[in-house]
Every structure is written in C-alpha cells, then in structure tokens.
C-alpha cells in the first residue's frame, strides 16, 4: 500500500497515524518545540495527528499554532522553536516569506529551522530568497506524504540539535576562556586559587552566589615531592582551610585524589569530577567538584579544559613568585652587604623597607606600589660600594673633598641599577638617586625640590633618616625617640615632605616597634 498524501482532504489520514511502539522502554526526556503557521485549521490538526507519538533523540514533539504571520511573531517572542512550518500564502501572498525574513533578519534567529509549505503550486520563492533568508526547505502540500513529513522532521531536528550542541560547546568554551582570563588577573597565589574556584561556578552555569550556599563543593590541591598543598576550598570543604594544619584533606577526597594520581587521569562521574593535570616541573594538580545535581559530558570536558589552563597558569605564577622571591632576597642581601661594609649593623635595611612600606600605604599609594617600594628600598645606598673605606668609615666629619666623593654614591647607585628593566630595580635606581634630595631644593645630587622629587625618593629619605638617627653609627650613638621626632618636625618643609612627616607622626607607634621586630645584629 503506497504512502498517503497528508493534505488531500481525505479521512484516510487517521488510518496512517503512527502509534508509539509497545516495545519502547525508554521514557522520553524533554520536548522539541514546533511552531505550525497556517491559516487553515485542518493543516494544524492533520500535522499533529500524523506526528503523534513521533520521537527523536529521546524527545517528543510539542506543537504551538499560529494562524497568521502576525500571530506567529507573537509566538516567537514567547520561546525558542526547533522548527517552524510556515505557509507561504496567508494574510498576504508573501506572508510566509515576510515571516522568514522577520525570523532571520529582524530578530536575528538563525537557530530555528524554517520550512515553507504551500498549497498553491507555482508559488515557490526564487532561489535567491531561499538562500538569503536561510530557508531550510520548501514543500508543496500536494506532494507531501506521511513518510516525507517524518523524514523532514528527522532531518530538520537533527540539524537543530547539532546547531544547539555546537552553540552550547561554544558558550562553554567562552566561559572557560573568560574564567581563565579572570583568574589570571590575580597576582597572588591565594587570590588565584580562590578566584579559580569561583570561576568553576560560572563554567557550570550556577548562580554566582551558589558557591556560598554550598550548592557547589570544590577543593583544589597541588601534589609535589610526595606532599599535598591545599590551594583553595569552598562549600562544605571550606572548613579545611581553617584547620591548624592547612594540608589536612578530607578522607573521601583524598581517596579520589589518590585514584586520579594512580591512573594519571581525571575521574568523570555524574555527581562529581576530579581533574588531574601534571605540569612539566613535576607537580600534579587536582580539582575536586561535587554537590551539583548532574555533571554532563560537556561539564566534564569544560572542567577538564579549565583544569589544564589553571594548572599551567598556577605553575607559571608559582615560578614567577619563586623568581621574585629570589630577587627580593638578593636585594636584601646586597643591601645588607653594603651596610656591613660601612661597618653598620644589618637591621637598618629591613627597617627602612618596612617604614617605607607603611608610609606608602598610609599615603594611599596602593598595596602593590607599597610592596614594590618595600622591596626596592634596601638598595638605596648601593652606590656606597664605590666609596673608599677611608671615607666611608671615617669616624669624624668629612672634609669638603671627601664629602664630594661621598655624595657620588647616589649617582653611582643609579648608574648601576638603571641598567635593569625589572620593576624592583628600576624603582630602586630612582630611590638610590633621589633619597638625598630635599624638599626645599638643598639636597644632592641634582638639587630637586618639592614634588619634582619622586614620591619613592621622598619616602625613603624620611625612613632612612628616621631609622639612622635611632641607630648606632661609627660616628654617633643612637638618639632617643623624642629627639628624633623633634628634629624631623623641625625639618618638615625643609628636608622632608611635610605630608609624609605628618603620616610618620600619625603612625609612629606602628613604626617605632619595628626596631624590636628587626633588631640590629651585633
């Protein structure tokens, strides 16, 4: 018996209705939204009747009807449709074409599959119109059979599904890129790890507050040299970071970490994910995510990509921190070496560094700059390596010729340090050059005054004099605190920036205790 026409005004259509298979055991999950646009009510009825029980990809069909192009535009505002079956001739001869243009151009919908149908042969639109409006098919109602209609639905729904899959993957990758970029904005390891866990919620499409509501439980750790280091935790794992031993990892998570370590691969489950990634330096990084309703294959792939990106970024950040820490230690060692050559004790450079940091922070110069000036200031007197011992360690007052030689240490220090393009050494070169300039212009080597002196030079000048007066030198005993502050106040607007003098006075308690924290070495 041949395949029946759908729209031949015959009651035989009911006999061709497809019944659901009695052998089907898998319950459909979800629906495909279908929009039928036609001014003939019978077309709606027959379409739904013939496709009753139709399933594709474990989803059934849900039909929505519009009896004009105008009504269809309202329906399109309500939801997204997988397929729109559109009659060409309705309220006007080109109503269907106008609707197709509205879908593709006006509302920029290139996802919904659009199929035109007409009961009037010869009304087919031009090839250019079909191409430009991205019309996916054109069917003459008089030739459309039950089999052809089902074939049409299979092909268009398959196309829509694939487009949506690509779009979901694209959005997921965009989330990974955005999340990776956000965590790379942080320069401190602690901030980096916390930001990384926050971005996991974005990748999984969770509410931004979900991390605080324990919807997500996440735990990040790094393994190297047979030891685990906890990087960050959230949700019901947050308490781990408050333990005295921050490396205590819950037993259930540890067992999963060990399993991932043994297999050298990530673990994928519906209710949790354990990401594993080994870096070139030999560290193995692990990410545990759970307490979500369901982790799809896409979620796992995105978390895998994100974990890899995080591990690489973490490794680079760790390496950078190690390099910077080495650089900072070398700066301190060099600064202390200069002090010892001057037969001074070693606590001076550490105290000047901390005093400079406090003055910068209290002057609202920002945390980053304040830390930078702390790390650069120990080299303020590095130019003294070029000063002969007889002049450098002379217990009495220098004669004019000796004083001129002594003053050259500022320029020498600048010449040595300015050759580097590293931030710490660049700032250190400015400090070395300008920390003997005075607010009133009577300093050296260039006689700068006021704000022409870099703020770092003004800060270290004050910190250096304050601490030097309170320290024992080859030519003097330490001054009492009251005498030091009295002199500094007298030199406000002469030697020192008056605003910085006030900052020092306002924070003298915090500054004065540094001598106890960083005592001179005998």
How much helix, percentage-wise, in residues? Answer: 40-55%
Q: How much beta, percentage-wise?
A: 5-15%
**How many whole angstroms does the radius of gyration measure?**
38 Å
Report the span from N to C terminus: 110 Å
The figure for the number of domains is 3
**Class of the largest domain, according to the CATH hierarchy?**
Mainly Alpha
Quick one: biggest sheet?
6 strands, mixed
CATH superfamily of the largest domain: Hypothetical protein af1432
Shape: elongated
Global mean pLDDT? 78
How many strands? Answer: 11
Question: Which strands sit side by side, in order, in the main sheet?
Answer: 2-3-1-4-5-6
What string, H for helix and E for strand, traces the elements in order?
Answer: EHEEHEHEHEHHEEHEEEHHHHHHHHHHH
Under CATH, the topology of the largest domain can be stated as Hypothetical protein af1432
- What structural class do you assign from the helix and strand content? alpha/beta
What is the CATH architecture annotation of the largest domain? Orthogonal Bundle
Helix count from the secondary structure assignment: 18
Describe the protein in words.
It contains 18 helices and 11 strands. With 522 residues, the chain is α/β, with parallel strands linked by helices. It has 3 domains: 156 residues, Response regulator (Rossmann fold, 3-Layer(aba) Sandwich), CATH 3.40.50.2300; 134 residues, GAF domain (Beta-Lactamase, 2-Layer Sandwich); 176 residues, Hypothetical protein af1432. The strands form 2 sheets. A 6-stranded mixed β-sheet has the order 2-3-1-4-5-6, sandwiched between helices. Strands 8-7-11-10-9 form a 5-stranded antiparallel β-sheet, with helices on both faces. Helix 3 links the parallel strand 4 and strand 5. Helix 6 packs antiparallel against helix 8. The relative contact order is 0.05.
């Amino acid at each position: 018996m041949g395949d029946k026409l759908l729209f031949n005004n015959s009651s035989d259509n009911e006999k061709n209705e497809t019944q659901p298979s009695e052998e089907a055991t898998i319950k459909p999950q979800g629906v495909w939204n279908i929009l039928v646009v036609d001014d003939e009510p019978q077309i709606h009825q027959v379409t739904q009747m013939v496709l009753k029980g139709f399933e594709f990809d474990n989803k059934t069909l849900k039909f929505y009807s519009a009896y004009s192009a105008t009504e269809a535009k309202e329906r399109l505002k309500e939801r997204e449709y997988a397929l729109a079956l559109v009659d060409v001739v309705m309220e006007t001869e080109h109503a269907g074409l106008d609707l197709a243009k509205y879908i593709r151009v006006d509302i920029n919908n290139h996802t919904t599959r659009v199929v035109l149908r007409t009961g009037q042969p010869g009304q087919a639109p031009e090839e250019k119109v079909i191409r430009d409006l991205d019309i996916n098919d054109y069917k003459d109602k008089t030739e459309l059979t039950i089999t052809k209609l089902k074939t049409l639905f299979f092909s268009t729904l398959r196309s829509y599904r694939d487009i949506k899959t690509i779009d979901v993957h694209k959005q997921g990758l965009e989330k990974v890129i955005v999340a990776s970029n956000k965590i790379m904005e942080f320069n401190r390891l602690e901030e980096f790890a916390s930001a990384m866990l926050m971005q996991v919620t974005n990748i999984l499409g969770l509410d931004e507050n979900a991390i605080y509501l324990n919807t997500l439980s996440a735990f990040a750790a790094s393994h190297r040299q047979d030891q685990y280091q906890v990087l960050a935790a959230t949700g019901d794992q947050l308490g781990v970071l408050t333990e005295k031993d921050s490396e205590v990892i819950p037993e259930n998570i540890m067992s999963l970490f060990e399993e991932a370590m043994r297999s050298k691969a990530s673990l994928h489950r519906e209710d949790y994910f354990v990401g594993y990634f080994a870096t070139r330096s030999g560290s193995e990084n692990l990410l545990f995510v759970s307490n979500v309703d369901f982790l799809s294959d896409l979620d796992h792939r995105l978390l895998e990509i994100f974990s890899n990106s995080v591990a690489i970024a973490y490794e680079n950040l760790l390496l950078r921190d190690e390099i910077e820490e080495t650089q900072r230690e070398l700066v301190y060692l060099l600064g202390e070496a200069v002090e010892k050559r001057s037969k001074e004790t070693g606590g001076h450079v550490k105290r000047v560094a901390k005093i400079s940091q406090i003055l910068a922070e209290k002057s609202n110069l920002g945390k980053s700059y304040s830390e930078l000036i702390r790390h650069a200031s120990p080299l303020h007197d590095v130019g003294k390596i070029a000063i002969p011992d007889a002049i450098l360690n002379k217990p009495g007052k220098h004669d004019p010729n000796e004083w001129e030689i002594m003053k050259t240490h500022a320029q020498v220090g600048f010449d040595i340090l300015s050759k580097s393009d590293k931030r710490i050494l660049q700032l250190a070169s400015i400090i070395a050059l300008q920390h003997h300039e005075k607010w009133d212009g009577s300093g050296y080597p260039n006689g700068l005054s006021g704000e022409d002196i870099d703020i770092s030079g003004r800060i270290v000048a004050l910190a250096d004099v304050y601490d030097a007066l309170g320290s024992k030198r080859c030519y003097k005993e330490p001054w009492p605190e009251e005498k030091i502050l009295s002199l500094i106040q007298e030199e406000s607007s002469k030697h020192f920036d008056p605003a910085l003098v006030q900052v020092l006075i306002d924070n003298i308690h915090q500054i004065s205790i540094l001598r106890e924290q960083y005592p001179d070495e005998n």
